[in-house]
Amino acid sequence: MDLTKKKCIPCEKGTPPLNERQENTLVKAVDNWDLVRTGVHRLKKTFRFTGFSSAIGFVVQTALIAESEGHHPDIHIYYAKVEIELPHMQSGIVRKRFHTCRKD
């Protein structure tokens, strides 16, 4: 399944999260992202850079893509490391989060 060619459909309030079987299928299509199942299910990835400026440049580009896709990930910046987490509100992961991961 090539998620890079998929276009996201915005989640409506009340969109149910994926079940475990669906998560297991889709996580195979996103390289190097971790599926965290403690608390609110989310996708997580750590990106490493040579310094603070390159990390911030990545964050800016990520924010522009996220806004254009209607996604608003949690972004954590640690000097030359950036962690991105993609939860689904307070209920779990929906399919569009996997589409965003393919944009990295």
Quick overview:
The chain is an alpha+beta fold.
Describe this structure in words.
This protein has 104 residues and is α+β, with helices and mostly antiparallel strands. Helix content is 32%, strand content 21%. It is built from three helices and four strands; from the N terminus they run H-E-E-H-E-E-H. The chain has a four-stranded antiparallel sheet, covered by helices on one side.
Secondary structure topology:
Elements: H1 20-27, E1 34-36, E2 42-48, H2 52-69, E3 74-78, E4 81-87, H3 95-101
Global mean pLDDT: 75
> What summary fits the major beta sheet?
4 strands, antiparallel
Share of residues in strands? 15-25%
Order of strands across the main sheet: 1-2-4-3
Uncertain spans = 1-8, 89-99
Q: Total strand count, please?
A: 4
Counting H and I runs of at least 4 residues, what is the number of helices?
Answer: 3
In percent, how helical is the residue content?
25-40%
Structural class: alpha+beta
Distance between the termini: 16 Å
Q: What's the SSE pattern?
A: HEEHEEH
Tell me the radius of gyration: 14 Å
- What overall form do the CA principal axes indicate? globular
